[in-house]
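BUG-326 | component: ligand-complex export | severity: low

The export step for NAP jobs runs without errors, but we want the raw record kept on the ticket for reference. Input record follows.
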Amino acid sequence: MKAIQITEFGGPEVLTCTEVAEPTPAANEVRVKLYAAGVNPNETYIRTGTYSFLVPELPYTPGFDGAGIVDGVGEGVGHLKVGDRVFVAALLAKRNTGTYAQKVVCDSNAVHRLPESISYQAGAALGIPALTAYRALFHRAKIKPGETVLIHGASGGVGVLAVQMAKGIGANVIGTASTEEGRSLVKASGAAHALNHITENSIDKILSLTNGKGPDVIIEFLANVNLETDLKIIAPYGRIIIVGNRGSLEINPRLAMMKEADILGLALFNALPHEYNESLHAVEAFLESGILQPEIGEELALEDVRKAHEQITSQNARGKIVLSID
Ligand code: NAP
């Protein structure tokens, strides 16, 4: 079968399309014939061999997310059978042979049913983004219906799903994006307001949208740029969840002290097994109820994976980048 492999760490050029043996499912494992795979920023960090959570043995086939049909089940798998439409969310699976491939084998608990109404491409956009959005809102922020949440970076793979989930449980959502196209997507996903990313100059704008109080929760995707501003706009006793960060900054901790604001980190790799399973069941329920509608920004062929890795860290977001697989 066709798969992307890396045999050395480096830039996008180390991603090579090659023929590999089809993997066989062992007990409690499932093999999925994939029609699409999701591309995430952390897969670009893993490719360089410098990612703090995972430095894989080589050769390595990247990819945790995908969607397709079950085409093999190991002993002991009760909830899935050959032919089922499924999505794969294998970040925390004990075994995952990599979704940038025609087939993947992974633990059966990482494989969940995909409703007929959701395309394989959209199913491949769930995995890490959906688990991250769920963990940010529910495990870390403990958001409640009626609260106001600012999704600071709402146009990307995680942001769009976070907007949909927050809106779906009755929160008041404000989202940001740097382009008009991104802001339209944020509005269409359910945000009451879509703004440019907040800077020192737009603090008044966000305060006026929240009756001077500020958002109860901020889900932050570029903390090294925004954390000081977030502390200026967060409501008293509010919670700021750091999901994305690409550097350092200086902040005045007094801002957190004055409001008794909480700054909470999030690393999906730290999710406990029961939290992982809970999140996946919630994602399945959100899909079935129509709350989650993943948005595909760009669809590339598996063979164009190098371009996908270049784009995900360099261009403005509009939903999710997925690889289509023949
Ligand atoms: P993505 O699809 O590339 O989206 C990136 C998002 O960041 C876009 O909405 C982008 O908005 C926004 N952004 C850009 N500049 C910003 C700024 N100045 N302020 C606020 N937001 C800004 O990536 P993704 O998959 O959604 O992931 C988003 C981030 O979360 C990445 O850094 C990723 O590594 C991280 N992440 C972390 C975890 C974890 O476990 N901690 C899990 C998943 C993802 P525009 O393009 O419209 O400017």
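Assignee comment: Attached the raw record above. The chain is about 30% helix and 25% strand.
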